[in-house]
Amino acid sequence: MAKGGQHVVPGPRGWSVKKTGSVRASSTHSTQEEAIAAAVKIARNQKTVLYIHDRDGRIRERNSYMGDIHPAIG
């Protein structure tokens, strides 16, 4: 079973990277691209799923870094 994941979400100071279920951000970035790059590194290292949210907070993309044979479709 997967152990949570990483979320790239809009925040008051740009874009944040948050672990599933966490209130506090792991990191905050001025652009979504920077936040995604940071979240990809974490997701690969932890072998979890990356959820990328749009400005409205809805998930717009999902990527698996769990070593799946059939990766998640975004």
Describe this structure in words.
This protein has one helix at 32-46, and strands at 5-11, 14-19, 27-29, 49-53, 59-64. Strand 1 (5-11) and strand 2 form a beta hairpin. The chain has one domain. The chain is of the alpha+beta class and 74 residues long. A five-stranded mixed β-sheet has the order 3-2-1-4-5, covered by helices on one side. The longest helix has 15 residues, at 32-46.
Strand arrangement within the widest β-sheet reads 3-2-1-4-5
- The count of helical stretches stands at 1
Largest sheet: 5 strands, mixed
N-to-C terminal Cα separation, in Å?
A: 20 Å
According to DSSP, the number of beta strands is: 5
Compute the average pLDDT.
90
Provide the helix percentage.
10-25%
Question: In terms of per-residue confidence, which ranges show pLDDT below 50 for 5 or more consecutive residues?
Answer: none
SSE run: EEEHEE
Strand percentage, roughly? Answer: 35-45%
Indicate the overall shape.
globular
Query: What's the Cα radius of gyration?
Result: 11 Å
Structural class: alpha+beta
How many domains in all? 1
